[in-house]
Amino acid sequence: MNNIDEYRSLMSQPQKVVITTHQVPDADALGSSLALSRYLSKLGHQTKVITPTEYPSFLDWLPKPNEVIVFNSENKTICEEQFDAADVIFCLDFSSYHRLQELEKYLKNTSAKVVLIDHHLHPNVIADFEVWQPEAAATAELIYQFIEDMGDKSLIDTHIAEGIYAGLATDTLSFKLGTTTPDAHKIAANLIQLGLDSAKIHRLIYDNNRVEKIKFLGYILQNKLVHLPEFKTAYFIITAEELKRFGMGLGDTEGIVNYALSIENIVLAAIIIERAEYTKLSLRSIAQFPANEVAEKYFQGGGHRNAAGANCAENSQELEKKFLDVLNIYQNQLLNS
Ligand code: 5GP
Ligand code: MN
Fold first, then answer.
1. Ligand 1 within 6 A of 82 CB?
2. pLDDT of residue 77
3. 29 has a pLDDT exceeding 80
4. Domain final residue, candidates 158, 186, 206
């Protein structure tokens, strides 16, 4: 962290802390936020986790030290008051303001000290203190290191360990992505040594599906896979009608894109999903192929080399056409990967 002495002096007194993270928080975003919240509470700070949107229900099991406030049109005032009253605001697992949706303006108008802890490229969030490491496998890795650097490793209890492990395990796709750092493995080992039941966490994250979701997955794999070996690419498109017909909510489409990536010789996998307010594009890639460059340059999104995404204004057909045009641009790079 930069200005670490100033940070220590600021946090030497109990502070009112807001911890926020990106829209549709994933396990890294929510797990890191809850782990940090518990850690800071143990130090005597008053903490609130505020998310810009609902988080997927498959994360309901995460231990919540304090109530998580999910921003919506009814609790606008409460959220605004929390941001106004905060002495310190932690921004976790996002690097650009727009991923906060309506919370963006509260952060931009704040007089609180801002701490950014993140592993995305090109941060544009203005912060007083930063723990920014784009090479980190997950924000959760940085949370662990931060607690350790503060000399507080002894405060890591099961709840903190579970939040950190959830982030590490999911951002690395169970420690199998090329972005998995040696530190990610070392931290996982340390957490297990501290008593974390890692098998339980894997079960809660991956083997906790509603049967309807598994049937939906069967339908998608059977009917919606587009395989383009000439581009070493495979993708799915899921319409709003299909989500409705199968009763699929936020989070039920999580992980489907990885089935496209698991096909032999695939370098790039994508999923296009019609959501209520935008069309979601998720990209996954193998090895050096830069999914983040594709997301940033052509779809105003972002992410990491092997996992990136964007929320797009186009409908799914227009987005598919644009995606196919982009594949042409990258054809040589895809074939040579
Ligand atoms: P997912 O496909 O799981 O939603 O996202 C994969 C990665 O891409 C996430 O780690 C996130 O960092 C990034 N990402 C997803 N959507 C967006 C977006 O709309 N904007 C930016 N900048 N990054 C995104
Ligand atoms: Mn992350």
1. no
2. 96
3. yes
4. 206
Q: Do 171 and 201 fall into the same domain? A: yes
Which candidate, 208, 272, 283, places its Cα nearest to that of 240? 272
How many domains does the structure of the chain reveal? 2
- Give the domain-ending residue among 161, 181, 206: 206
Q: What pTM value is reported for the model?
A: 0.90
Ligand 1 in reach of 302 Cβ (< 6 A): yes
Instruction: Determine if ligand 1 sits within 6 Å of the CB of residue 282.
Output: yes
| pLDDT score at 264 | 97
The ligand placed nearest to the CA atom of residue 171 is: 2
Q: How far is the CA of 40 from the centre of ligand 1 (A)?
A: 27
The per-residue pLDDT for 65 is 65
Q: Read off φ and ψ for residue 224, nearest 5 degrees.
A: -120, 5
Same domain, 197 and 219: no
For residue 136 the two structure tokens come to 């980190």
Residue 310 Cβ inside 6 Å of ligand 1? The answer reads: yes
Instruction: Looking at the CA of residue 310, tell me the nearest atom of ligand 1.
Output: 19
In angstroms, the CA 179 to CA 191 distance is 20
